[in-house]
Amino acid sequence: MNKYELAVIVNAKIEDDERAATVEKCKALIERFDGTITNVDEWGKKRLAYEIQKMREAFYYFIQFDAESSVPAEIESRVRIMDNVIRYLCVRQDEA
User: Fold this and answer.
1) Is the distance from CB of 86 to CB of 18 less than 8 angstroms?
2) Interatomic CA distance for residues 94 and 74, integer angstroms
3) What pLDDT digit, counting tens, does each position of 28-77 carry?
4) Please, are residues 7 and 88 in contact by the beta-carbon 8 Å criterion?
5) What strands, in cross-sheet order, belong to the sheet with 2-11?
6) String of b and e for 33-45 (b: at least 16 CB within 10 Å)?
7) pLDDT tens profile 1-16
């Protein structure tokens, strides 16, 4: 099992319950592929470095999880088509 972090940037123009549902979908994807969620950081609404889809702000979430090496590719392929996700990035965390 490797340690990974999924960064998800969610549309700020949607309702709170829709945003929570989007994050729950991401968590469910990780669990569906036998990943174990270890931590979820919600950074809240932040200003974007540059405008994306005519938006200047978005909500940032960082989901840390343990999973096999094939899981990040599966998660990315499904997060890519989510409507309310503006950007995403899944990276492996090195052992410090």
Assistant:
1) no
2) 20
3) 999 999 889 999 999 999 999 999 989 999 999 999 999 998 999 999 99
4) yes
5) 36-52, 55-67, 2-11, 85-92
6) bebebeeeeeeee
7) 899 999 999 998 999 8
Coil, helix or strand at residue 80? coil
Is there a contact between 52 and 19 (Cβ–Cβ < 8 Å)? no
CA angle (26, 69, 59) in 5-degree steps:
25
Cα 23 to its chain centre, rounded Å, is 7
- This prediction's pTM: 0.88
Tokens coding 78: 């499904």
Contacts of 30 (CB under 8 A, 6+ apart): 6, 37, 63, 65, 67, 71, 75
Longest dimension (CA), the chain: 39
Could you tell me which of 32, 23, 4 has the C-alpha nearest to residue 93? Answer: 4
As a whole number of angstroms, the distance between CA 78 and CA 32 comes to 12
